[in-house]
Each structure stands twice: as C-alpha cells, then as structure tokens.
Write a structure and sequence with these properties.
alpha+beta, 2 domains, Immunoglobulin-like, five-stranded mixed sheet, Helix Hairpins, elongated, 10 strands
Length: 265
C-alpha cells in the first residue's frame, strides 16, 4: 500500500476508535448518573460530595494525551506529504473552468485523463488559470488546492495499476460538479510508449477554410438587388438664369404700370 495512504488510513482509524470510546464512555456515565442520582433513588440530595483532585487530573491529562497522539499521527503524515522524493517524476496539473489539464516532462499534454506509470513516485505541480480549485484523488488519499498565481505541489507513489476518479474538492463555479477526471496507472513500458508518441496534428489550409466560410454566407446578386441610379436624372437640376432674370424684369414692369394708374378716390 502507498505510504501516504497507509498513514492517512491509520490516522483515520485511530481517531475513529478514540471517538467511539469517548461516545460510549460519556453515554454510559450519563445513563449511570441519571439512574443513580434520580429523585426516586435519592429523595434527599446528597450534599456531602466535594471535589476529587484525582478525577480532575485524570479528565485533564487523558484528553491531553489523546489530542497529542492525534497531532503526532497528523504531523507524521503531513511531513511525508510535504517532502516528495528527489527522483519523483514531475507532472504539471492546471485547473481550469471546468476541466483538468496535464503536462508531462517532455511536453506531452492531456486533458481530463491522467496517465501514470506503475510503481513510481509522482510529484504534481499544481496551478490554476482562473479561480480556486482543489485537486483530489480519493484513492491515494491526496488533496491539494490549485491557487491562481501560486505554484502548489503534492506527491504519491503509484503502487498498483488501475483507474480511479479525479475530482475538484473546491467550489469553482457553475459546472463545479462536472469537473471530473480519471487517473490511469498503467505498466511503465506502456506509459513510456504513450508519452513518447507524438500527437498527430492536422494541418489547416487557410485558403480552404476561407472558402468554406464563404460558402456559408448567402450569395447576393448585386445586379438584381442593387438599386441603379441614373446620374443624369439625379444630377442637380440646372436653373436657366436668363428665364429667371426675365421673370424679374416682368415683375418690375408690372409694378411700374400699377404705379402710373390713377388711384380711385
């Protein structure tokens, strides 16, 4: 079993046992005192009880020792989790809204599915391109935040082959629940073949793309739909100044004739 997985499981079982012991002990003591010191069994309250130094020391020291033991287990796990082995293979993990992006040492990349070789120490460098995410692989008992503008890390050992879930354990927006992935631990030989394989990229002819885009646009017959304009008809109408001047003269003559007519008294 993975060392980190073993430590986390041991810590969980230890805390669970202590919790059950305290639950049973407190419940049993409560029932005992309810029955022993009930009004039916003690019509007159017993006022002779005083403090008990031994009991007070016991219920102070025992919980303290239990809490220190929990701290010891937790610190041991934390110390190992924060000190990845120097020979660990590095994988860059970037959380994006809403999927996981992985990049390997040789530049190979994949989305959603994380491929790892079996029996290797793996160190993850964690990034976020937008908001806060949390890279969580429950099968390996590891979870660490991906913080924008900061490089975080975690590691574990791939002790066995198989496929497990990857989840985001930090609410990151509308599709947070669908930010899922898979980690596939495969034999080292198979992984080396996969990671060394160059992804085939289809070349794109920009001229063909442009033509295909043009074909999507409905053609317009500019001859049929366009409105022809007769420049001769739409040109500014000319004014015959001679005619207008003649008109002015006629109006002057009429005015003079009117002035010569005698006015009726």
């Amino acid at each position: 079993m993975n060392e980190i997985t073993q430590l986390v499981d041991d810590s969980f079982i230890f805390i669970l046992v202590i919790s059950v012991f305290l639950l049973v002990g407190v419940t049993a003591a409560m029932i005992y005192f309810v029955v022993r010191y009930s009004e039916k069994n003690n019509p007159k309250p017993d006022q002779t009880l005083t403090g008990n130094t031994t009991l007070e020391i016991a219920w102070t020291v025992i919980p303290l020792l239990l809490v220190l033991a929990m701290f010891f287990y937790g610190y041991e796990g934390f110390r190992i989790m924060r000190n990845p082995p120097p020979d660990a293979m590095v994988v860059k993990v970037t959380g994006k809204m809403w999927f996981w992006h992985f990049e390997y040492a040789n530049g190979k990349q994949s989305d959603t599915t994380l491929y790892l070789p079996a029996g290797k120490n793996i160190k993850f460098e964690l990034y976020s391109s937008d908001v806060l995410h949390s890279f969580y692989i429950a099968a390996f008992r590891t979870k660490e935040d991906c913080v924008p503008g900061k490089t975080n890390y975690m590691w574990f050992n791939t002790t066995k082959e198989g496929t497990w879930d990857i989840e985001c354990a930090e609410y990151c927006g509308m599709n947070h629940a669908y930010m899922l992935g898979k980690v596939k631990v495969i034999p080292e030989k198979e992984f080396n073949e996969w990671v060394s394989k160059i992804d085939s990229v289809k070349k794109t002819d920009s001229l063909k793309v442009a033509d295909s885009l043009k074909s999507l646009i409905p053609k317009t017959d500019t001859v049929k739909t366009g409105t022809k304009t007769d420049t001769l008809k739409t040109s500014v109408s000319k004014t015959d100044t001679s005619k207008t001047q003649g008109n002015k003269k006629d109006t002057i003559t009429l005015k003079n004739k009117d002035l010569l007519k005698p006015k009726n008294k």
